[in-house]
Amino acid sequence: MKKTSTILLTGLLMLSTIFTSCEAVKNTNKTQRGAAIGAVGGAIIGGVLGNNIGKGGNGALGAVLGGVIGGVAGGVIGNKMDKQAREIETALPGAQVERVGEGIKLVLGENAVRFDTNKSTLTAAAKANLDKLVPVFNQYPDTNIQIYGYTDSTGTPEYNLTLSGQRAASVKSYLAGKGISAGRFTTTGLGIADPIATNDTAEGRSQNRRVEFAITANEKMVQDAQKEAGK
């Protein structure tokens, strides 16, 4: 499981030190300090990872970073996400699980979620792997799950955009059919955007044909975390 960048953590720790050492801030309560740190922390995240968001702002990374709460409440959410990320890794070894900010970026390549050529139909192997994620997703009902479909550069961008959206929708439909609330999901097709490997080789194109998940706190989890932080 990959962790958030060292630069980001260092920046937030420095910010926390500044806030907690300031005399004026010492007179505020924990919730107020957390809110202040969270607000400025968002700016630090934007500065440190702005380039990544710019390249893939519509993808899983941008979605996870866009939901940052920060402060003590953010730490509470992060702890829950740490546990969920470990359980995803255990359930589906080989999946690319990355803890970012207060959420999880999950990348499932063709080895995990494969579709029939030029179709949005899930293969039997893909369904079996998605089945492994169902118990974990059900165990954490207070999370939103955004699904992004990607393709390689073969074919027209327009065709690939449509196909990627259909494939993301197929994943949502399958998981919802397994009992996960459909309201937790949103789907987006990004086609050839944001390649993670070269499209000049067969291996690279295979890596680019993937599905990504952005797992973030829903409103209930945020509210519960804020209540816990205020104790």
Description:
- This protein is an alpha+beta fold and 231 residues long.
- The chain has a single domain, classed as 60s Ribosomal Protein L30, Chain: A.
- Helix content is 56%, strand content 13%.
- A five-stranded mixed beta sheet has the order 1-2-5-3-4, sandwiched between helices.
Brief account:
The protein is α+β, with helices and mostly antiparallel strands and 231 residues long.
Characteristic key phrases:
single chain; 231 residues; alpha+beta; 60s Ribosomal Protein L30, Chain: A; 13% strand
Largest sheet: 5 strands, mixed
Strand order of the largest sheet: 1-2-5-3-4
CATH architecture: 2-Layer Sandwich
Q: Count helical runs.
A: 9
* Series of secondary-structure elements, N-terminal to C-terminal: HHHHHEEHEHEHEH
Q: Regarding CATH, which class?
A: Alpha Beta
Q: What best-fitting shape do the alpha-carbon axes yield?
A: globular
Number of self-contained structural domains: 1
Strand content: 5-15%
